[in-house]
TrEMBL record:
Keyword Cell membrane: yes
Name this polypeptide is given: Signal recognition particle receptor FtsY
Gene behind this protein: ftsY
UniProt superkingdom: Bacteria
InterPro entries in alphabetical order: AAA+_ATPase, P-loop_NTPase, Signal_recog_particl_SRP54_hlx, SR_rcpt_FtsY, SRP/SRP_N, SRP54_GTPase_dom, SRP54_N_sf
Length: 389
């Protein structure tokens, strides 16, 4: 073999192989600007890529064009409720509209020309119809008869003054009607709200929170009505309006543990007042009443319970009084909240429930508005039902 020819052939083959590799190697990508400058054949000329415009504060461009900026969801606005002082005075006209029939009827009877036995019986019946109670009605009539006989005259001014004094004697302005709202050394005040279904218990709890926040108190709410998820939702709505946190659990949770946790949070955060909303229950159901007692006992392992407020519907009359007796036996009620007092002429229930239980009416509900719960004041109440002097 001619090695010279063979060597030349190998050289030519090698040259072809390396040359082909070099010729088919991918070209280095051109710069972005160059590729943009040379669009494919038949394609419309590309527009220059605009750099992001410089933005001015507030989400606008330097040219002043507004741009869409996603805003975070706004936090609910915290309301500042009015203070408790003067609330009943402000609501006096509303109270007078519902109680005026009762008051004016009594004044009319006492101002009549003849006050014989029949007239006095009618006065007593009017008092009983207004849920004053048989015993209290008899005492009021006896007092009025004696004083009218002694005075001998019955001008409208004298009659009004006499009736006012007798009603105040029965309502007893000297009773302590303050709600213990704390704080106390090392712990918050603890308020339990109890009552039967339908009396406005959860609403009263929320309104009471507004009263306290309006007075500058800090509040924690305990949603211990675990039978209804809607009750806890409702309480959270009330709390969010005034910045009061709500302790709640899933529906069906142990109400005593929820109440305990609410008080524990109040202690930890040095809150002024913890208000515990309990489930509505029929006063005839022994098991449910026993459970209410358990809630109170469990809470007292963490802190003293300073108030047990029983919510009563003013329109229920004698039935409301029966309810009050059972609740008082179960949890030692310390005060009454009368709701719907604006819609009934039976405000005499105030006299009767206080007489039967020895427990003062501390708060009254006079409407559907969020700030229609007011501290009860005996003199303002009597003046409202008798009209201006």
């Amino acid at each position: 073999m001619d090695y010279t020819i063979f060597g030349v052939a190998v050289f030519i083959v090698a040259l072809l192989v390396f040359g082909g590799v070099f010729l088919i190697r991918p070209r280095k990508p051109e710069s972005r600007d160059e590729s943009a400058a040379a669009p494919p054949s038949g394609a419309p000329a590309a527009t220059a890529v605009a750099e992001p415009e410089e933005r001015e504060p507030g989400g606008e461009t330097a040219a002043g064009t507004a741009t869409a900026v996603a805003e975070p969801p706004a936090a609910p606005e915290i309301e500042v409720p009015p203070p408790s002082a003067g609330r009943l005075v402000r609501l006096r006209a509303r109270l007078a509209r519902s109680q005026n029939v009762f008051g004016q009827s009594l004044l009319g009877l006492l101002s009549s020309d003849r006050l014989d036995d029949e007239a006095w019986e009618e006065i007593e019946d009017t008092l009983i119809t207004a849920d004053v109670g048989v015993t209290s009605a008899a005492q009021i009539v006896a007092g009025l008869r004696t004083r009218v006989k002694v005075l001998g005259t019955r001008t409208p001014e004298e009659v009004r003054r006499l009736l006012r004094e007798e009603l105040l004697t029965q309502i007893d302005p000297a009773l302590d009607r303050t709600v213990a709202t704390g704080p106390f050394p090392g712990r918050p005040a603890v308020v339990m709200v109890v009552g039967v279904n339908g009396t406005g218990k959860t609403t009263t709890t929320g309104k009471l929170a507004r009263v306290l926040v309006g007075d500058g108190r800090s509040v924690v709410l305990g949603a211990a009505d675990t039978f209804r998820a809607a009750a806890a939702d409702q309480l959270e709505t009330w709390g969010s309006r005034v910045g009061a946190p709500v302790v709640r659990r899933d529906e069906g949770a142990d109400p005593a543990s929820v109440a305990f946790d609410a008080v524990a949070r109040g202690v930890e955060e040095k809150t002024d007042t913890v208000i515990v909303d309990t489930a509505g229950r029929l006063h005839t159901k022994t098991g449910l009443m026993d459970e209410l007692g358990k809630v109170k006992r469990v809470v007292e392992k963490k802190s003293q319970v300073d108030e047990v407020l029983l919510v009563l519907d003013a329109t229920t009359g004698q039935n409301g009084l029966r309810q009050a007796r059972v609740f008082a036996e179960a949890v030692n009620v310390s005060g009454i909240v009368l709701t719907k007092l604006d819609g009934t002429a039976k405000g005499g229930i105030i006299i009767q429930v206080q007489r039967e239980l020895g427990v003062p009416v501390k708060l009254v509900g006079l409407g559907e508005g969020p700030d229609d719960l007011a501290p009860f004041d005996a003199e303002t109440f009597v003046d409202a039902i008798l009209g201006d002097s």
